[in-house]
Design a protein that fits this description.
8 helices; single chain; two-stranded parallel ribbon; about 180 residues; 4 strands
Length: about 180
């Protein structure tokens, strides 16, 4: 967890490889559905282009399909899901039906101004239509309104692990490995 631009995708890919599990990014799932022109992708694009969260029903359907894949049986790393209290409930139901559970919820903490700067740079480098400065600021507002409350929920469940997300990628990875007590 962490605001857009906190480095979740970068770190999730590294940690998933270290653990030998698939990295499941809702952003990647959304972009794949959009580029393929699926009905869910067409619906998702309207919200993505406006900087809003994709509705839970659409997001949950995409994630449910992905978690049902064979490569997820031994475990997985979620990146960008859940984002709302309702999605937490849906994820709990998905995991319960497959006898899986969450081991930890990692929050990357960052400075908001640094996040905006990261996303503006990424937009320029990758030409991403969903990363204009206005959309970035709206995504941050939505994050703090809808997703930040999950931090306390996961803290009360004893699952939350907070790590400083600022600095060199390798330094952040080192802090994550230490915080999760992983072998590197």
């Amino acid at each position: 967890m962490g605001p857009p631009g906190a480095g979740k995708g970068t770190q999730a890919a590294v940690i998933a490889e270290l653990l030998g599990v698939p990295h499941i990014s809702t952003g990647d799932i959304f972009r794949a559905n959009v580029s393929q022109g699926t009905p869910l992708g067409i619906e998702a694009r309207k919200y993505m282009d406006a900087g809003e969260y994709v509705p839970d029903g659409v997001t949950n359907a995409m994630v449910r399909d992905r978690l049902a894949a064979d490569d997820c049986a031994p475990g997985f790393l979620l990146d960008g899901y859940p984002r709302t209290v309702e999605q937490v409930g849906e994820l709990t139901a998905m995991l319960g039906s497959s006898a899986q559970r969450l081991d930890a919820v990692l929050e990357l903490t960052v400075d908001v101004d640094e996040v905006v700067a990261r996303l503006v740079r990424r937009a320029a480098e990758q030409g991403r239509s969903d990363d204009t400065e206005d959309v970035i600021r709206r995504r941050l507002e939505v994050y703090f309104e809808q997703t930040a409350p999950l931090i306390e929920l996961y803290r009360t469940q004893g699952l939350l692990v907070q790590v400083d997300g600022l600095g060199e990628v390798s330094d952040v990875t080192g802090r994550i490995v230490a915080a999760l007590a992983l072998e590197s």
